[in-house]
Design a protein that fits this description.
Helix 5 packs parallel to helix 6 and helix 8 crosses helix 9. The chain is of the alpha/beta class. The protein contains 13 helices and 15 strands. The strands form 2 sheets. Strands 1, 2, 3, 4, 5, 6, 7, 8 and 9 form a 9-stranded mixed beta sheet that branches. The chain has a 6-stranded mixed beta sheet with strand order 14-13-10-11-12-15, with helices on both faces.
């Protein structure tokens, strides 16, 4: 008998011809996350099996909770047998230290060559336990203990509980996207939800010194570092937006400041996305939350790019977004009081139904194409990785 960690895929099992790509990518992501060559990983189309020293199980499970593509994490026991008598004896030994009064057995029989059905095996194991352990009874609806048995190729697996994973698809299986990352609450949540769908992200931040501070930039770097836990790493593009923003403020009617600013940001984002093989733009916009997020504003801003713009939070309210941000530990960083360039120079009465013809006329009041070229040419790139932990072998 060997103790191990078992991974259930969940949504990945809906894939057919390309399921091997998804599972192989998941294995690669796990190996990169665990960062230790002493850990052995095996897999088939139904399960993944991780072998390491039992003293590392807690740390491994903690890291696996940050890997997309995992439906459930299980600490279980591998038996190199399908013989029910041997399984029964092992089960009795494993249950010696467990206190329970009610139980049920759930068997999954993926090896159809086994003559008995799952229901028959459940009954046989249940009867055996009732005979060999006092003061217990079966409760199939609300048991204190559920005994899981999986019968696979030439091995069987016993376990007693499951740990919920993040679900979704393994990162990078669906290509790359560029996240427009501000220092607010919304965009990190949008990034998290996009990574969950298998999209590997790069990020784009607009700074406007001296109007925005180094603290505001560091805040965004910390948010990107948090997302890197799920994305393996993040390349953060930093655009100096000062000259563009000042030109907009000096030359364009103030009610259109935000609309024109966003249109230019989208143009910059599209150019960087295309240069870095990103198929989509991602942002944290939520319908109606601010003036630039009305449907009319979104249409006026969106028209300047051809790349798809994904808004994972479009139909979420603020309380729902805050709830997710707290779960992924970005909320406390997001509410730090350092303004980004989207919150400075905000007009008192921004237009909520911008006229697209006026947008084009106002843009011609500034040399925005030259300014965009200069900002991209001079932009900074920061490679951000998650905070590294020690290798498990270093803990010995």
């Amino acid at each position: 008998m060997k103790k191990l960690i078992i991974i259930k895929y969940g949504e990945l099992t809906t894939k057919k011809e390309n399921i091997n790509l998804f599972i192989t990518t998941l294995k690669q992501n796990i190996k990169q996350k665990l960062n230790d060559s002493t850990i052995e990983i095996k897999f088939d189309k139904g399960r993944m099996f991780i072998y390491t020293s039992e003293k590392f199980f807690k740390d491994v499970v903690h890291k696996l909770k940050e890997v997309f593509g995992i439906h459930e994490i299980i600490i279980g026991y591998e038996l190199k047998t399908l013989n029910l008598d041997e399984i029964k004896q092992t089960l009795i030994n494993l249950l010696e230290a467990k206190e329970f009064k009610t139980f049920k057995v759930e068997t999954k029989r993926s090896n159809k060559k086994i003559p008995k059905t799952s229901v028959e095996i459940n009954s046989e194991l249940g009867a055996f336990l009732l005979k060999n352990r006092k003061n217990i009874k079966v409760n199939v609806h609300n048991p204190e203990l559920t005994i899981y048995l999986e019968l696979r190729n030439n091995e069987s697996y016993l376990y007693f509980e499951t740990i919920e994973g993040l679900g979704g698809y393994p990162v990078s299986t669906l290509g790359k996207g560029l996240l427009m990352l501000s220092g607010g609450i919304d965009s990190p949540v949008a990034g998290f939800m996009t990574i969950k769908r298998g999209v590997k992200l790069e990020a784009l931040y607009f700074e406007s010194p001296p109007h925005t501070s180094i603290e505001a930039k560091n805040k965004v770097i910390e948010l990107a570092r948090n997302l890197a836990k799920y994305n393996n790493e993040i390349k953060l593009h930093v655009i100096n937006f000062t000259e563009i923003q000042e030109a907009i403020y000096k030359n364009i009617p103030h009610e259109y400041l935000i609309t024109i600013m966003r249109r230019i940001m989208y143009r910059i984002a599209e150019i960087l996305a295309n240069r870095n093989n990103c198929k989509i733009l991602v942002n944290g916009e939520s319908i109606g939350q601010v003036a630039s997020q009305t449907l009319t504003s979104m249409k006026a801003i969106n028209e300047v790019v051809n790349i798809p713009v994904i808004r994972p939070l479009a139909c979420f309210d603020k309380l729902e977004i805050i709830s997710i941000s707290k779960k992924i530990n970005t909320y406390e960083t997001s509410i730090l009081p350092f303004e980004d360039c989207c919150t400075i120079f905000v007009p008192r009465h921004p237009v909520i139904n911008p006229d697209r013809k006026l947008c084009k006329e106002y843009e011609e009041l500034i040399p925005y194409k030259d300014l965009i070229y200069k900002a991209i040419k001079e932009h900074e790139i920061i490679k951000i990785v998650e905070k590294q932990h020690q290798k498990f072998t270093d803990l010995l």
